[in-house]
Amino acid sequence: MEQISQTSDGAAHEANSTNAAVTAGLDAMADVLQRMGDIAYASQQSAENLADLHQASEQIGEFLSVIESIANQTNLLALNATIEAARAGEAGKGFAVVANEVKSLATQAAKATEDIAQRIDALKAGMLTTQDSISVSRKAVDRGQETITSANERMQSVGSRIAGVSSRMQEISAILQQQKEASQEIARSITGVADLAVENETQLKNMSDALQASNDRFSSDARNWFNAESNRSLCEMAKIDHVMFKKRVVDTIIGHDKWSAADVPNHHQCRLGKWYEAIDNANIRAHPAYKALAARTHAFTPQPTRPCRHMPMAMPIPPRRALTDLNVASQQVIDALNDLSDALQNELKDSDRRLELRDKSRQETARVDMASGSKSVTITDVSQSGFGVSGLSKADVGKAVRLVYNGTEVLGEAVWADGNRGGIRILRKDRGPQG
Asked: Which end of the chain is more exposed for a tag (fewer CB within 10 A), N or C?
């Protein structure tokens, strides 16, 4: 610019050219500054979205711990059921198969939970890398803005430095290109994170459905197996009911089930409460395990909160805290039931009515009448609550039957069958057995 000023012949032309160049440069710089501001804003939004996704991943991890706890409880219940089936001898073989299947499903659920946890860890690592990239991009944008400001000031004061400003504009253009590529990469990363989040939510839903199906089948078969006259059998069934109850509460909280708070039974209305309050045996009621169970069931009063409309990661904080408290209180109830079950098996075994004498010396032919027709069976053993017979099929389970033998008619229900042997629970006996 100094050389232009010293040259009189070309001073005017050079001045006009310089002024036009400076004006054009200033306009271009203003446009670049605006775009850099837009990029800075987009980077800030991306950083905030990644922070939200990181928090969502933490919430998914919390749900995984609860589901893993449910799977572990189911596995433990299946083990207890297997032990009980073994004690039941031949009558428990069919239930042992179901218990093993439930245990296998619980193991698969735990493995799936571990796999999802590993995916979430990988997801977090990816998000941290993306956050670092955004931070680098933000710094580059800041440096670019500083460079543009400095160049703008120099263009206004020194026309001779326009060439240098042009060079810096080329550098800025290169930075903008890098920022464009970085923004595209960030957009792809965010899309990938969202896809992983949706996939995780889908896997959680599938795992929850699989657990529910196995729990429903386990509960149904257990109800056919248990002895209503045994306090210990009812105690074991109460544990199964409790796990099913907690599973439904969890499903309601994460939006996979609908359960009004008004329909949730309290500790007096559930099977456990009714059985607990109906016990009239003084030895059982005086036992510390019985008293401890009362305190823990009274404290366990969950209410399903309003289901979240969005994914579990978006669930408000109060339901998450309620879910954690529910899990702790639930484990305390299970522990109390385990203590009482152990007591009924050991020091309170004389107070339990389960160990009734069964007459296994009988081998007599009888007739079973059902809605679908009649068939001949053989009575293998008799107890106060039912008959062991051979000749029932699995299709007969759950049907009302009339057992006719030796002048006696008994109204009952087929409660189990393995294709060879089966059991009939007595509902009403019209005449006493003969001989």
From this structure: C
Query: Which tokens belong to 355?
Result: 């160990």
d(CA 81, CA 204): 26
Give 388: exposed, middle or buried? Use CB within 10 Å, 0-12, 13-18, 19+: buried
Are 160 and 273 within one domain?
no
291 and 398, same domain (yes or no): no
pLDDT at 168 over 80: no
Q: Per the domain annotation, does 435 fall within a domain? A: no
Residue 338 has pLDDT above 80, yes or no: yes
Most confident option among 21-25, 87-91, 227-231, 328-332: 328-332
Residue 268 lies in a domain: yes
| Residue 240 zone, left/alpha/beta (φ > 0; ψ -120 to 50; rest) | alpha
Instruction: Assess whether 217 and 293 both reside in one domain.
Output: no
| Domain, as residue range, for 416 | 364-429
Q: Are residues 179 and 151 in the same domain?
A: yes
318 located within any domain: yes
Q: Give the span between the Cα atoms of 430 and 36, in whole angstroms.
A: 92
Return the pLDDT at 306: 40
Q: For residue 221, what are the CA distances in angstroms to 148, 224, 226, 293? A: 76, 5, 9, 26
Q: Are residues 48 and 103 in the same domain?
A: yes
Question: What are φ and ψ of residue 303, in 5° steps?
Answer: -130, 120
Phi, then psi, of 356 in degrees rounded to 5: -85, 150
Distance CA 382, CA 422 (A): 12
Predicted structure pTM score: 0.38
Contact at 8 Å (CB) between 404 and 365?
Answer: no
Kindly list the distances between the CA atom of residue 8 and the CA atoms of 3, 12, 17, in Å, as whole numbers in the listed order.
Answer: 10, 8, 15
CATH code, domain carrying 218: 1.10.287.950
Region 379-400: mean pLDDT is: 88
Residue with tokens 């057995």: 433
Same domain membership, residue 236 and residue 219: no
DSSP-assigned letters across all residues of 70-121: HHHHHHHHHHHHHHHHHHTGGGGHHHHHHHHHHHHHHHHHHHHHHHHHHHHH
Tell me the helices (H) and strands (E) count for the chain, helix number first: 9, 6
- 431 three-state secondary structure: coil
114 lies in some domain: yes
Which residues, in sequence order, are bridge partners of residue 368? 375, 403
- For residue 101, give Cα distances in angstroms to 105, 109, 127, 144, 256: 6, 12, 39, 64, 24
Angle of helix 162-225 versus helix 231-253 axis, rounded to 10: 150
